[in-house]
Amino acid sequence: MKKNLQPILFGLIGLLVFSSCSSTRQMMNRYRSDMEIPEEAEPYPKPTPRAKLLGELTAPRICYDVTFYDLNIEIDLDNRKIAGYVDFHAQAVNDFTELQFDLAKNMVLDEVNYKGRTLSYVQEEDAVFVIFPAVAAGTQFQFRVTYHGEPVEAKRPPWDGGFVWEKDKADRDFVGVACEGDGASLWWPCKDHPTEEPDSMAINITVPSDIMCVANGRLREKVETDVKTTYKWFVSKPINNYNVSVNIANYAVIADTIHSVTGIQPATYYVLDYNEAVAKEHLGFMTNLNHGQSMALLIISPCMRQLMNGGAIISQRAMGRTFGCMKVLPCILKCFM
């Protein structure tokens, strides 16, 4: 019986691969039809002052290594503002009396505090240069940056960085962040350079109690009041600054497990509540396909709405044996293997 089913199975797989490649080819041809090939190459754009300050590894940048960020902010959805603080836990790589971290210049920097003392600083574009008392190489130290403001809004996410303030089909808040291109310092203070990854990170976000916030890592605790709720997420592995994100909406939580070669793995999905029934149907199908994979988090995010046009592309790594990508729900897949 199994042998008789094999040709049918391989035929279906071939059809899936062919249709996926055909759709991709049609999409690329549609884009190429509007393209013009220039006769000569244009000059390479000169880096802006902001880009140089964020991109160069100068002495105030390489003098310390961030090992842990503790991000704590409250998000005001009505006024589209955020306020809070970030605790930097770091180790001095070199002796220093000045270090640099980064925060968008449109945000308001309230204070830099070190051992109970307010430190002086100078801000140039998005770079903040802080004057410290002498810190010797090898010293473990921490300081707190308190800030607030109205973060820039992404005009064309995910290609343009910033917050995405949208509404779902029920006209409720549907909020996310896109900052891979422009950097995480658009909305939280950090050492905003590709070479810098903390070993772990706490992401504590306070939002109104009638909505949910999903962030990176695992949810450790939820502190609720009648008016506000703080979601405490924790990332136990190194993470790029630009990957730190928040997704705020009226989510339904779907708990599941995935059987893999390493055992039974928990899987938690966050979908818009009015899509819960159809999501369960799709996710049940995906669970059967993902043999040997461990999906930890599936969320619907507003950041990809324009790009995906109501659908989603599941990454090749996550889908494993489905040979690439598949269009399912308006979702983004985050997987922590």
Question: How would you sum up this structure, described in words?
Answer:
With 337 residues, the chain is α+β, with helices and mostly antiparallel strands. It has two domains: 62-248, Sandwich (Immunoglobulin-like); 251-334, no CATH class. 19% of the residues lie in helices and 40% in strands. The protein is built from six helices and 19 strands. An eight-stranded mixed beta sheet has the order 5-4-8-2-1-11-14-13. A four-stranded mixed beta sheet has the order 16-17-18-19, covered by helices on one side. The chain starts with a helix and ends with a strand.
Number of helices: 6
- The neighbouring-strand order within the major sheet is 5-4-8-2-1-11-14-13
**CATH class type of the largest domain:** Mainly Beta
Q: SSE order in H/E notation?
A: HHHEEEEEEEEEEEEEEEEEHEHHE
CATH superfamily of the largest domain: tricorn interacting facor f3 domain
Work out the number of β strands: 19
Total of domains:
2
Give the name of the CATH architecture of the largest domain. Answer: Sandwich
Mean pLDDT: 80
Which strand-content bin applies to the residues? 35-45%
The gyration radius over C-alpha positions equals 23 Å
Shape: globular
CATH topology of the largest domain: Immunoglobulin-like
Instruction: Name the helicity range.
Output: 10-25%
Question: Structural class given helices, strands, pairing?
Answer: alpha+beta
Distance separating the two termini:
35 Å
Runs with pLDDT <50, length 5+? Answer: 290-297, 304-337
Largest sheet: 8 strands, mixed
